[in-house]
Design goal:
This protein is an alpha+beta fold. The chain has one domain. It has 2 helices and 3 strands; from the N terminus they run βββαα. Strands 1-2-3 form a 3-stranded antiparallel sheet, with helices on one face. The two termini are about 25 Å apart. The relative contact order is 0.26.
């Protein structure tokens, strides 16, 4: 197997945007004398965000680049980083975008 250590960043990485969410729900109230107690009615909140990642083509290892609050921002960010991915060398891209 031949390992490449130099070349265009696009030969080594691809970009992806992941949508992540987290729900904020009420905690269950546990007691020794009962197994379940109905929690008070609370509003369940769902938080969403988007993470732009560079994924190594060889190892499938994902490297987070930036977090965004909405999808249109994430797509604009991906397009911007994609330009750098096509123009920069692997080493330049890693030093600019990937924190190691």
């Amino acid at each position: 197997m031949r390992v490449r250590v130099f070349g265009k960043a696009g030969d080594f990485y691809r970009l992806r945007v992941l949508k992540l969410n987290e729900e904020s729900s009420p905690e269950l109230d546990w007691h020794d004398d009962i197994l379940f107690k109905k929690p008070p009615v609370e509003e369940v909140r769902c938080y969403e965000w988007y993470v732009l990642q560079a994924v190594s083509i060889d190892s499938e290892e994902a490297h987070p680049i930036r977090r965004f609050e909405d999808s249109s921002e994430a797509m604009r960010g991906r397009d911007k980083v994609d330009e750098f991915l096509r123009e920069l060398t692997k080493q330049e891209f890693e030093s600019r975008f990937l924190k190691r």
